[in-house]
Amino acid sequence: MRKIFGIGETVYDILFRKGKPIAAVPGGSVFNGLISLGRVGLDCTFITEIGDDLVGQTILDFMHENGINSRYISCYLGKKTAISLAYLDDNNDAHYSFYKDYPNNRLDFELPEIAPNDIVAFGAYFALNPVLKPKVRPFLEYAKSRGAILYYDLNFRSNHVHEVDQLRDTFKENFELADIVRGSHEDFINVFGHDDIRQIYERYTSAGCSILICTRGDNGVEVIDRGQDFSFSSRPIVPVSTIGAGDNFNAGMIYGLVKENIGRENLEKLTLKEWSELIGYGIEFGTEACMSILKIM
Fold first, then answer.
1. At what angle do helices 54-65 and 29-39 cross, to 10 degrees?
2. Taking a C-beta distance cutoff of 8 angstroms, is the pair 262, 278 a contact?
3. Is 232 strand, coil or helix?
4. Which residues make beta-bridge pairs with 221?
5. Which of 31, 88, 104, 121 is least surrounded by CB atoms within 10 angstroms?
6. What confidence tens digit (pLDDT) does each residue in 42-92 have?
7. Are residues 223 and 229 in contact, defined by beta-carbon separation less than 8 angstroms?
8. What's the distance, CA 204 to chain centroid?
9. Residue 226: is it exposed, middle or buried by C-beta count within 10 angstroms (0-12/13-18/19+)?
10. What share of the chain is helix, strand, coil (3-state, %, to 5)?
C-alpha cells in the first residue's frame, strides 16, 4: 500500500460560539487531513511536535485511535502543547488566537523510509517558518528524491500577511518542490494580493509546480494543469462550520490519488475525466467537514 506522510503543526482547538466553548478537538491543517485519511484506512504517518503534557497525550491517543503512526513526533519535555481558540462568527467562519510554548531546538526526527509514489502533505505557516526551515526543507527534498508526490497547501492566514515579503523566497522554494499546490482564494489574496489564478500560475508557480488548484467555497474549484484550465462546481449546502473544510478537501484529493492509482507518471497526463473524479473526492470530503463541527473529532 502507498504511504501518506504529513509534516505540520499540531494544536488543540477549543471552539467558541457567542463567547461560550462548544467543542474541543485536536487539530492543525495537515493533521486534520491525515485523520480523515487514517479513518478511511490509508497508511498515514505524521511528523509534528507536542509538549509532554496532558493535552499532548490526548492528541497522541487521538492519533492512535484513528490509525496514525506517531513514531516521528517530537515531544518536548517541560513544554506545553499548542492551544488554539477558534471563535465562530455569524457565518460559522472561525477566527483564531494561538498560544504556544516551544523550545529553542525544535523538530528532531529521523527520516522515514519513503518509496516512489508515496504522498507527502505539507503546508500552512509550518512550511514557511524560518525557525523550522532547516528541518522541514531537507525532509521535503529527501521525499522528492525518493519519488514521492508532494502536495502543498498554502493555508496562509491573514495574521501573517505582514511577513509575506520576507517569506517570498520560501514560497518559491515550496512551489518548486511541490507537484500540486492548493489554496483557497483567501490564501492567494493574502499571499499575492489578488486571486487571479491564471496570473499567479504564470508568474509564480508554473516554473516549479505545474498543477495549481484554487478552492472558492460555494463558487467551486479552479484547476490549472500544465497551462490548461478546468472548472468544477461545488455541492450546494448550508454549512454548520467551515473549520477543516480545506484540510479535508486535501484529504479527498490524496484519497483520490491513491484510490485511482495515480502516481507520478499518471500525474503528468491527467484528463478532464480524471480531474473531475479527483476534484469530486476533494469536494465530497470537504463538504462532509462543513456539515458538522464534530466531523473532525
1. 40
2. yes
3. strand
4. 215, 232
5. 104
6. 999 999 999 999 999 999 999 999 999 999 999 999 999 999 998 888 777
7. yes
8. 20
9. exposed
10. 40, 25, 35
C-alpha 127/C-alpha 113 separation (Å) is: 21
pTM of the model: 0.92
First to last CA, the chain: 26
The three cell numbers of residue 41 are 484506512
| Alpha carbons 188 and 192: distance in angstroms, whole number | 6
* Residue (of 119, 138, 160, 101) closest to 30 by Cα position: 119
Alpha-carbon distance values, 124 to 110, 117, 127, 218, 247 (Å): 22, 23, 6, 22, 10
SS3 5: strand
Distance separating alpha carbons of residues 185 and 40, to the nearest angstrom: 28
Helix (H) or strand (E) holding 176: helix 164-177
Q: How far is CA 75 from CA 68, 72, 118, 223, in A?
A: 16, 9, 25, 38
For cell 463538504, the residue is: 287
Backbone angles phi, psi at 80, to 5 degrees: -100, 145
Give the list of residues 6+ apart from residue 99 with CB closer than 8 angstroms, or none: 82, 83, 84, 85
Residue 172 and residue 262: Cα distance in Å, rounded? 26
Q: Which three cell numbers stand for residue 49?
A: 511536535
